[in-house]
Specification:
Blueprint: H1 13-57, H2 62-76, H3 80-94, H4 103-124, H5 156-175, H6 180-185, H7 187-195
Length: about 200
């Protein structure tokens, strides 16, 4: 990051103008570098999260994964009635999972779909406050991306929804080969969502 040292100089008007322009240019360059590094760290944060949980969700059937992708996309585009319907269908299809070792990840994913479902129903009825009727329990939280100390949580409902959306996104990305391109197009949205927590996560 560029560090700028401000020193009082006895300059003429034209020299002062040139000096101020140089300082502004350095400050703008510093901001660009900061944004670039934040973007890099958040991209890596998402990549690491995908690697961390994909083993527990890599056996989701294609049909189920496609329903999960459809639920995410419907919510993303504000089609909340459709999102609620797709979430409900995906939960029914998901079940507990055939591999006992994956049951924790499946339970967390089902909870994520339930949280998106509850919020989609609220938003479809013009209720804009994030729904807290469902929350990840401690075991389910093992598979969430954003882990904050209680005193760092400003809006519990939004945190639950954001964690749910990230988990649903990753499940669709990992499980649905038919939707891989569509999910890739929404990676920036997920990175921006995660970036909102950069200070609380200690990244910046």
């Amino acid at each position: 990051m560029v560090r700028v040292l401000l020193i009082h100089l006895d300059l003429s008007g034209s020299e002062r103008y040139v000096h101020d322009c140089m300082i502004l240019k350095l400050l703008e360059e510093s901001k660009r570098h900061k944004k670039k590094w934040v973007r890099y760290f958040m991209e890596q944060f998402l990549t690491d999260y995908i690697e961390r949980i994909k083993e527990g969700i890599d056996d989701i059937p294609d049909t189920t994964a496609h329903e999960i992708a459809s639920a995410f996309l419907a919510f993303r585009f504000g089609l909340y009635a459709n999102a609620a319907r797709e979430c409900k269908h995906a939960i029914e299809l998901l079940g507990p999972g055939k591999n006992p070792a994956h049951q924790g990840a499946y339970a967390s994913l089902k909870k994520a779909l339930g949280i998106v479902l509850a919020n989609a129903q609220d938003l479809d009825n013009s209720l804009v406050t994030a729904d807290l009727s469902l929350r990840f329990d401690e075991q389910e939280r093992t598979y969430t991306a954003i882990k904050l100390a209680p005193d760092m949580v400003e809006d519990p409902g939004t945190l639950e929804l954001d964690n749910a959306l990230v988990l649903v996104y990753v499940a669709a990305l990992v499980g649905s080969s038919d939707d891989e391109e569509a999910m890739g197009e929404h990676r920036k949205f997920i990175v921006r969502l995660l970036t909102g927590y950069k200070k609380a996560l200690g990244i910046v």
